Amino acid sequence: MAKIFITRRLPEEGLQLLKEHELEIYEGDAPPSKEEIIEGVKDKDALICLLTDKIDAEVMDSAPNLKIIANYAVGIDNIDVKEATKRGILVTNTPGVLTETVADLAWALLMAVARRIVEGDKFMREGKFKGWAPLLMLGSDIYGKTIGIIGAGRIGSAVARRAKGFNMRILYYSRKRNEKLEEECNAEYVDLETLLKEADFVSLHTPLTEETYHMIGEKELKMMKPTAYLINTGRGKCVDEEALVKALKEGWIRGAALDVFENEPAIHPELKKLDNVVLTPHIGSASYETRSKMAVMVAENVIAALEGKLPPNCVNPEAYGKK
Ligand code: GLV
Ligand code: GLV
């Protein structure tokens, strides 16, 4: 029987798989503090954490028995993977199972902002609808337009497949060329500048790294068309939020739809005042089906590590066997 610390209650399907082990679950509604994480993990063999938990060298040093850090997310920017590798601690994530779910949300946001769904809903509830009118709540067409996908991994590709159904021209910019995407969706590999200048919708799907931090700032927003929209379901820190507020206020772009924020859970106060932005609370993977699958996946990763096997979704296999 191993000891496992879980920083929040997860869907039952995952917990069930771990029931032979001793589980300590942090039951708060808000993320645990650093001190609470350290207190929870110190005598544990495994840690299951969320993207809101910063897992750094200090946390790792407080847990000498720790074999695995299993993130309940695909993004792993909250974990210092280099430090984990040094200590022989395996790090895992939950890729694949959330791909289509996040792509669905990116599309929901794209359509919501282009067709002013949230504004329209508010308008109705406020009793402002006086009847059909030729110029009421005009938005942008989606069908036949150009989408620019930044980051052509699993999620970016799933967004592109949906764009095909809308008969869109698909541009993408990515660290690596994705020939499968080009074949499957007739997507064109372009540089960032071309993408920003030509896309009607720019959708972000890169992980957060040193290279992607603030990759969309003032300069990039100014390259976009004044009629274009920015959609972000990746990581908030990839966008300079201050510059985005300026862009939305001054009309450098027409709108934005954001599921992630630079300093989550805080959001820029000006964003809340703007009608041309749609805001959701980091719910990209939040479907009943996917959150359950993610819970099973983290449990399977933990079980493998505890059995001395290489977990299926290990992001630092070089740490395997070092501890
Ligand atoms: C969500 O943002 C994730 O990385 O899974
Ligand atoms: C994440 O799963 C990605 O590759 O887009």
What does this structure look like?
By secondary structure, the chain is α/β, with parallel strands linked by helices. It is 34% helix and 14% strand. It contains twelve helices and twelve strands. It has helices at residues 12-17, 34-41, 57-61, 81-86, 99-114, 117-125, 154-165, 179-185, 192-198, 218-223, 241-250, 288-306; strands spanning 3-6, 22-25, 46-49, 68-71, 90-92, 146-150, 169-173, 188-189, 201-204, 229-232, 255-258, 277-279. The chain has a seven-stranded parallel beta sheet, sandwiched between helices. A five-stranded parallel beta sheet has the order 2-1-3-4-5. Helix 5 (99-114) packs across helix 7. It starts with a strand and ends in a 17-residue tail after the last helix. The mean pLDDT is 97. One glyoxylic acid (GLV) is lined by residues 51, 73-75, 98, 284-285. One glyoxylic acid binds at residues 74, 95, 99, 153-156, 205.
* Major sheet: 7 strands, parallel
N-to-C SSE series?
EHEHEHEHEHHEHEHEHEHEHEEH
Radius of gyration: 21 Å
N-to-C span: 19 Å
Q: Percent range for helical residues?
A: 25-40%
Oligomer: single chain
Tally the helices: what do you get? 12
In spatial order, strands of the major sheet run 8-7-6-9-10-11-12
The distinct bound ligands, ions and cofactors come out as: glyoxylic acid
